[in-house]
């Protein structure tokens, strides 16, 4: 029973987070979110964060949260739809914030930063939902470790499919 509850709670977090993050890549492109503006002579977010990708991440993430809400027990969190929507919003903002941080340090788009690149969207999701439900240490550990592996594998697949210029 404890393992089953842990699996359900991890799934309740990762489904909206992963769908939002991957949808931004799959459906992205077009006009950059920062409109190619600069801050202190550096891009604000860079060309990789686009308006279309941002809205795709929000749309498909919220859709995933809506569908997932039918399968998550009320004991997990009272209003899962609200929780899922906040996870999605946090994921998208966390990903954009990660790019903002990288640009401030002069790190070019596509250059890897260990842990920031893999976990920015997860940390954003946690930051937007901790006041509704605080994840356990076990949940945090599983989600972060799983994300490190899934992120690496999915980026490699996206690279092979020519959706990304670099395999990380």
List the helices and strands and how they pair.
Blueprint: H1 2-26, E1 38-39, E2 42-43, H2 51-68, H3 80-104, H4 116-129, H5 137-160
Antiparallel strand pairs: 1-2
Summary tags:
168 residues, mainly alpha, 5 helices, two-stranded antiparallel sheet, globular
Q: Number of folding domains?
A: 1
Mean pLDDT: 95
Shape: globular
Task: Please write the string of helix (H) and strand (E) elements.
Answer: HEEHHHH
Instruction: Tell me the distance between the termini.
Output: 37 Å
The total count of strands amounts to 2
Poorly predicted regions are none
Short description:
By secondary structure, the protein is mostly helical. Helix content is 63%, strand content 2%. The chain contains five helices and two strands; from the N terminus they run H-E-E-H-H-H-H.
Description:
The structure is a single chain. By secondary structure, the protein is mainly alpha-helical. It has one domain (2-160). It is 63% helix and 2% strand. The chain is built from 5 helices and 2 strands. It has helices at 2-26, 51-68, 80-104, 116-129, 137-160, and strands at residues 38-39, 42-43. The longest helix is centred in the N-terminal third of the chain and has 25 residues, at 2-26. The termini are far apart.
């Amino acid at each position: 029973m404890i393992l089953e509850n842990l699996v359900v709670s991890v799934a309740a977090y990762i489904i909206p987070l992963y769908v939002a993050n991957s949808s931004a890549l799959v459906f992205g492109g077009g006009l950059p979110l920062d409109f190619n503006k600069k801050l202190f002579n550096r891009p604000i977010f860079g060309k990789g964060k686009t308006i279309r990708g941002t809205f795709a991440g929000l749309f498909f993430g919220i859709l995933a949260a809506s569908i997932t809400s039918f399968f998550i027990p009320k004991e997990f969190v009272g209003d899962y739809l609200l929780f899922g929507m906040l996870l999605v919003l946090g994921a998208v903002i966390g990903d954009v914030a990660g790019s903002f941080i990288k640009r401030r340090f002069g790190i070019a788009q596509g250059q890897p930063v260990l842990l920031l690149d893999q976990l920015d969207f997860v940390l954003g999701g946690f930051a937007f939902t901790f006041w509704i439900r605080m994840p356990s240490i076990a949940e945090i550990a599983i989600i972060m470790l799983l994300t490190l592996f899934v992120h690496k594998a999915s980026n490699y697949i996206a690279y092979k499919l020519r959706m990304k210029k670099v395999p990380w």
